[in-house]
Amino acid sequence: MTKLRLAFMGTPDFAVPTLRALLEAGHEIAAVYCQPPRPAGRGHKLQPSPVQRFAGEAGLPLRHPVKLTPDEAESFAALKLDAAVVAAYGLILPKAVLAAPRLGCLNVHGSLLPRWRGAAPLQRSILAGDAETGITIMQMDAGLDTGPMLLKGSVPIGPRTTAAELHDKLAEMGARLAVEALEGVASGSLKPEAQPPEGSTYAKKLDRDEGRVDWRRPAAELDRVVRALNPWPGVWFEIGTERVKLLDAEPVPGKGNAEPGTVLDDRLTVACGEAALRCLMLQRAGGKPADAASFLRGHAVPTGSLLSCPATS
Question: Which of 42, 74, 87, 251 lies 20 to 30 Å (CA to CA) from residue 146?
């Protein structure tokens, strides 16, 4: 294993396994870059990111600039790096930063490029009903996830795969492939491959409004929404004027002639545009997650009730 002088750039939980793997591989981490602490919780106190917490516990030099200004780019170049490894950092790297390390900047990207370039590839792959996704280790360029590819690894997306499960699998795979890619680039045994010009899609940033259940959609689509958007931004619908989080559900056949949003039985099965969705785990505001039976014991929703759908523009 070639020991390299590296910068690591990442912020959320997804990035932590990669940083850990780089350390375990014996690389020198000259600096860790992450997003600045953000206010969170009821008190809105500043909270460090998962990467900042890990770096602090490991005693690694830490930087969290708000922007990568020209002065920050100079400080980055002064590190005299062999390479930088980037995993869900959250800031766009300017050309001066991309060009500074001897071997360039490698990105741990959560899709099989060129599929799903952009901010939320993991969730978009579930929402789209993709049969698989994976990790691409990419040599970064100035474009949005357009750089040449170094390594790939795939993961199947099953009919019950959730974003949380996929997140953990891809985070661990990304860590392993990042170490492997660094060794290949350093030794010259791994050559970058240009992305094909066809097949690219844009994984736009998730929006809170995407989590509102529209019962007019097919149940199979709503099932993917529930699996993709928990825990964030969360999935919800209204019972009367109360907002209820939907944490788990499953599509079931048949709804007859019922209007979308109609509660079909005492198990909280709801008619959709196609088929029906059975609500399995729910959470009231300020309450704890509960299975459907427990939820209904404390909050009756009679068969035949009509749940509201979002207004159309």
Answer: 74
Per residue in 246-273, pLDDT (tens digit) is: 999 999 998 889 999 999 999 999 999 9
Task: Note the helical H segments in the chain.
Answer: 16-24, 50-58, 70-77, 95-99, 121-127, 163-187, 219-229, 292-298
Query: In angstroms, rounded to a whole number, what is the distance separating the alpha carbons of residues 229 and 220?
Result: 14
pLDDT digits (tens, 9 = 90+) for 204-220: 999 999 999 999 999 99
User: Would the pLDDT of 41 be above 80?
Assistant: no
**Per-residue model confidence (pLDDT) at position 313:** 53
Pairing mode of beta strands 28-33, 236-239: unpaired
- Spatial distance between the Cα atoms of 69 and 77, rounded to a whole number of angstroms: 12
Look at residues 92, 88, 116 and name the one whose alpha carbon lies nearest to residue 228: 116
Can you tell me the distance from the alpha carbon of 125 to that of 107, in angstroms, rounded to the nearest whole number? Answer: 19
Contact 151, 184 (CB under 8 A): yes
Is-above-0.90 flag for pTM?
yes
Number of alpha carbons in the 13 Å side-chain half-sphere of residue 128: 17
CATH class of 208-298: alpha beta
Half-sphere exposure of 176 (CA within 13 A, CB side): 11
Angstrom distance (rounded) from CA 110 to CA 133: 8
The domain over range 5-203 is classified in CATH as 3.40.50.170 = yes
CA–CA separation, 41 vs 160, rounded Å?
Answer: 30
Strands (DSSP E) along 157-241, which ranges? 202-203, 236-239
Please state, in angstroms and rounded to a whole number, the distance separating the CA atoms of residues 87 and 50: 12
Domain ranges of the chain: 5-203, 208-298
Q: Mean pLDDT across the stretch 131-146?
A: 97
Which of 66, 150, 71 is closest to 105 using CA atoms?
150
Half-sphere exposure of 18 (CA within 13 A, CB side): 37
**What mean pLDDT value characterizes the chain?**
96
